[in-house]
Amino acid sequence: MTPQNLRQGNDRSPAPRSRKPTMADVAAELGVSRALVSLVFRDQPGASPETRERVFAAAARLGYKPDMAARLLARGRSKVLGVLFTARNPHHVDLVEAIYPTAEELGYDLVLSAAVPSRDEHKAIEALVGHRSEALLLCGPTIAEEDIADLGTRLPVVVLGRHLKCAPVDIVTSYDRPGAREVVDHLVGLGHRDIAHVDGGSKPGAPERRRAYRDAMRSHGLADRVRILPGNHTEEGGQEAARGMLAGDEGLPTAVFASNDQCAIGLLDVFTRAGVKIPEQVSIVGYDDSHIAGLSHIDLTTVRQDVPRLARLAVEAADEQLRGVRDPGATLKLESKLVVRGTSGPPTQR
Amino acid sequence: MTPQNLRQGNDRSPAPRSRKPTMADVAAELGVSRALVSLVFRDQPGASPETRERVFAAAARLGYKPDMAARLLARGRSKVLGVLFTARNPHHVDLVEAIYPTAEELGYDLVLSAAVPSRDEHKAIEALVGHRSEALLLCGPTIAEEDIADLGTRLPVVVLGRHLKCAPVDIVTSYDRPGAREVVDHLVGLGHRDIAHVDGGSKPGAPERRRAYRDAMRSHGLADRVRILPGNHTEEGGQEAARGMLAGDEGLPTAVFASNDQCAIGLLDVFTRAGVKIPEQVSIVGYDDSHIAGLSHIDLTTVRQDVPRLARLAVEAADEQLRGVRDPGATLKLESKLVVRGTSGPPTQR
DNA sequence: GCGCGCCACTAGAGCGCGCTAGTGAAGCGA
DNA sequence: TCGCTTCACTAGCGCGCTCTAGTGGCGCGC
């Protein structure tokens, strides 16, 4: 029972593969210090050109890749931004795509976390924080405002596409009024008067769009034609709203302005199946101009948000908060503009 | 020019916010050791129920959240799986959604990295490795096989939806033959004989689907009708192929089998715009059954891959490699099946 | 010769955590 | 009383890296 040579319980190496090489391995290979290797990899002054070359060569030879986790831990700043998005939302996917370039430009690494049906936003956010995100970019978060506020007190947070009353976070979004206004102008200009709105319930952006629709209608003297149908930001929401319109006894409006593209596509679907001609009988307008709307087979008239700039502003806002150049709480709004495609046209006389 | 008091470039404290609490803070708050707090947070035996409660209470009070980077570093196993996907590919997004549940079940955390136009797969993969992913799940990677092989020698890799000759990685994908076979059977059953294929070039899965199409045609005695048009896995690819067909002097086939859904949607688009009736004049079939195909407005006949099982198998394969219960190199294939929707129908006599 | 600045490089202390090997107290049987 | 467990908890090393505060050598001016 010689307890000396108990096998040290090291089932630590997960794979049969050889251990990942570390900085120390590279240093040993060259007979220099780890610090030198570190310098070289961080592209800092203090190493001669020849040494740099030798270090890179040795690293390549050994297959050494810097370990982020250790780097993050050691460095005060992690330079990691956490991005929360909803996998199913094409507009979010567009945003994620657009966030990468600016993040890279400002020297940030991105960690993505998707909210999916089986994994709610709270969990997704926790994962981001756990992975040492310095700041969070939340694409259209649906969690309670106080939760976001709470998060904002812990670390810099930038919310995209949702209005908040008083959370200590930055907000980057589009003006809803001009967009909705343009939609209504466009439809009225085509001759529509019965313009309904399928709203997005309490989903990010929805209340504002609803309000903007109402205002726009009012300013066209169409206050009495305001017709708001409950919906949400999914295809199903649009489908249900369309079924409701078909079954209801108010008759079909000549145009429907949906709270987002997915909802609009749901409308489109049910209407076309029911033999309703788009846009002859009903014009449909969405919101977001997600890449799905652009699919020319769908060809949805919609409101384009300036995704690249939204993304850029969001990353810059996070960066500013991180650098402490200003306190959180800024609200940045961009113009959005109507993109006329095939689902809107003049109403036919009845 | 007193070089002494150069401001030491310490932009280390990123935010004006107070430092994130650590385990030591929690321990100090209670007057216990860090190890105890660690035990409690890892849900390990060795702490009394009352102590556990006190620890959690103190942690909540301070807003302590375990730091992944440190945890990863300290632990041999990081329990993180890196997932590479293409943001623009809806099928990939479906896969990512499906990967979460199994990963969680097996105790893995996920780090996502998107390949986007401005950021190629190499970079995306590097980020994953850097963030200490223990294993990689690559959704339809387009990088060179040798690069994947190289990666496979460094850490466990599971490739989804692409065939590889001899890389030391696991492969999880669908049988292409039965799927393509079903497509051709279906179309032939409807009365089609002129069935073209718009291929996906060298994109993951494309060569196999092309081959499977050819075989299926041959077995129906339609070898002489085999017509393969160059394309790729994007909408644009489909559009170009459709334009080619419209402009070419071979005439339109009565049915087109596209290498993936996006490509099929491109076809759909150009054809409908050109006034070609779908499916009366041309039937169109896609591949993947991504959620876009399911959008009932598109209503694409397509081949459904069993995404939930693909995802589950992929995570399990990664887990098995990590546990070292088998060497890499397994290939798992699942059945896929035809989903008949509205874009396929009997050809009209001409 | 000395002092000085500069350059290339190094020593070593942490970053926040996990984990092994303990420690001391209590309990228990003989 | 002693030996032996068990329980609740602690000390302290090490994960791979960054970063501050050096060290030694060399060239230069006086």
UniProtKB/TrEMBL annotation, chains A, B:
Xref: CDD domains: HTH_LacI, PBP1_LacI_sugar_binding-like
| Keyword Repressor belongs to the record | yes
The record's Pfam families line, in alphabetical order, gives: LacI (PF00356), Peripla_BP_3 (PF13377)
> Which keywords does this Swiss-Prot/TrEMBL entry list?
DNA-binding, Repressor, Transcription, Transcription regulation
Q: Transcription: present as a keyword of the record?
A: yes
| HTH lacI-type domain: residues covered | 21-75
Residues covered by region (Disordered):
1-22
Q: Which GO terms describe its molecular function?
A: DNA-binding transcription factor activity; transcription cis-regulatory region binding
Record's InterPro entries? HTH_LacI, LacI/GalR-like_sensor, Lambda_DNA-bd_dom_sf, Peripla_BP_I
List the protein's name: Transcriptional regulator, LacI family
Supply the source organism for this entry. Answer: Glycomyces sambucus
